[in-house]
Structure formats: C-alpha cells, structure tokens
From TrEMBL:
SUPFAM superfamilies: Undecaprenyl diphosphate synthase. Transmembrane segments: none annotated. Gene3D superfamilies: Decaprenyl diphosphate synthase-like (3.40.1180.10). The keyword Zinc-finger does not apply. Pathway: Protein modification; protein glycosylation. Its EC number is 2.5.1.-. Keywords: Transferase. Catalyzes cis-prenyl chain elongation to produce the polyprenyl backbone of dolichol, a glycosyl carrier-lipid required for the biosynthesis of several classes of glycoprotein. Belongs to the UPP synthase family. This is Alkyl transferase. It comes from Hibiscus sabdariffa.
C-alpha cells in the first residue's frame, strides 16, 4: 500500500514539474542548507540527527532537480567558518560526510542511479585525510555520469575562493589581472553562475557563499528549516525565477 502511494505521489510531482516546464527551467540552482540544528532542537533530537535529516533533504532535492531538468546543483555543505563550531559537532559533521561520500560511491547509490556527477569546491587540504580521500573516491566513482553536476562546497568560503584565485593569477605571472584571469581560477569554474540561490530557515544572508557567482542570481528565502524543504519550495523558487525572466524580457523590449 505504502509503495503504491509513494508511486502515485511521485507521478503527481512529475506532472507538476511538466506544467512548470512550460516556462524556462533554470540551468543551475544553489542551496544554502540552513536550519539543521534548529530542526533537531525543535524535536528534541541530537544535532547529528538534524544533519542526517539535512542530508536526506539534499538527496530528495537532487532527485527533484534532476527530474525538472536542472543541469547543475551546488550545495553549501561545510564552510571554513564551520571549523569554529564545538569540536564534537565538527567531528560529527566530518564523520557524517565521510560515511555518506563512501556510501555514495556504491553502484546502486542515488547519485549513480540518477547519473549524477559529484564535484567538490573548497580548500580540501584543510580536511582530514579520510574525508579528503572519500571525496576524491566519490569524484572518481561518478566521473562518467552524464546527468546533473552536483558541486558540494566543503571547507569553502567565497572570500577564500576569490583570494586563492587572485593569488594563483599572480603566481602564474599575470601582471595585469583581468576578470577572466580570476574567473578561470575559481573553484566554481566548473559550472555557470547560479540562476537561483535558495536559502532555508528564513535567513536572507549569503554567509560567504558564491558571492562572485551570485551577482545576477534570483535569491529565494524559504522559512522552513532545511530538512523540511520539499518540491513545493523548489517549484515556488522556479516560478519566481520565471517571473524574473519575463520581467527582464519586458525591460529589454522597452
Ligand atoms: C554528505 C553531505 C553533503 C552532508 C551534508 C549534511 C548537511 C546538510 C550539512 C550542512 C551543514 C550545515 C553547517 C548546515 C547549516 O545548518 P546549521 O547547522 O547552521 O543549523 P542552524 O542554522 O539551525 O544552527
């Protein structure tokens, strides 16, 4: 019975996506996954359970994005500032990421079933050897997939990304540095700039995420905590993007 209901819901979601697809579909959606700890606190759960629920929400969003025809998904999984959290929480997040990256390498994992390629952005040298190895293994295990490109920002901040790109430009001998010199040395060179940036938990800040790349992005803030995000929020964000696109078109005609 549950399986049947699940299939009906998935069918209805796909029908909704078909309706939304009458308008332009964003090529790249970026997520700031905020509110895992508050989600856990509201339910008297451990912080780790909140992050685990956050991971499940990310996987659901990935499937929805893939079915909607989005080509690039980027998620802020761990910022450089997150190293300042309590050591127990940092350890819990590092262990969760290591375990999930390893399990995603399996042939029957969500990323392999949906043909998702995984890429990492950030100063990975700041990570422990085992997490770095798991990230490398996952990149290698999905390199042949041709569906959505999922970029996981780990040990990432935007200002760090910009400083490193400028440093590299100088080291590589550019005396006058142009925009393209910097852009081609950014971690995010792998994807076009995001069309939509979604942040959960009602916050409107960018928190040092894709500052360079989000100059023209449509910003969408949802009030739910990240683990509660659903396809409705995705549809709402895409409708906002479509309205923004049609306003841009009208402006160009004036
Ligand atoms: C394998 C993989 C990609 C795992 C990802 C797990 C995940 C969703 C990580 C996000 C971690 C994080 C710092 C969330 C922000 O919410 P918060 O902790 O700041 O919560 P708060 O805003 O309620 O304090």
């Amino acid at each position: 019975m549950m399986k049947f209901l699940y299939k009906v819901v998935r069918f209805l979601i796909k029908c909704l996506f078909c309706v939304v697809s009458v308008g332009p579909i964003p090529s790249h959606i970026a997520f700031v996954m905020d509110g895992n700890r508050r989600f856990a606190k509201q339910r008297n759960m451990k912080v780790g359970a909140g992050h685990e629920a956050g991971y499940s929400a990310l996987m659901s969003m990935l499937i929805h994005c893939s079915e909607l025809g989005v080509k690039y998904v980027t998620a802020y999984a761990f910022s450089i500032d997150n190293f300042k959290r309590r050591p127990e929480e940092v350890e819990c997040l590092v262990d969760l990421m290591t375990e999930k990256f390893e399990s995603l390498c399996r042939e029957d994992s969500i990323v392999n079933r949906f043909g998702i390629r995984v890429h990492f952005s950030g100063s990975l040298q700041l990570l422990s050897g085992s997490l770095r190895d798991a990230a490398k293994k996952l990149t290698a295990a999905t390199v042949g997939n041709s569906g959505v490109l999922l970029t996981l920002c780990v040990a990432y901040t935007s200002t760090d990304e910009i400083v490193r790109a400028v440093e590299k430009s100088c080291e590589e001998g550019s005396s006058v540095i142009s925009l393209s010199d910097i852009e081609k040395r950014m971690y995010m060179v792998i994807a076009p700039d995001p069309d939509i940036l979604i942040r959960s938990s009602g916050e409107n800040r960018l928190s040092n995420f894709l500052l360079w790349q989000s100059a023209g992005s449509c910003l969408v803030s949802t009030s739910v905590m990240w683990p509660e995000i659903s396809f409705w929020h995705l549809i709402w964000a895409v409708l906002n993007f479509q309205r923004y696109q049609s306003l841009l078109k009208k402006k160009k005609k004036l």
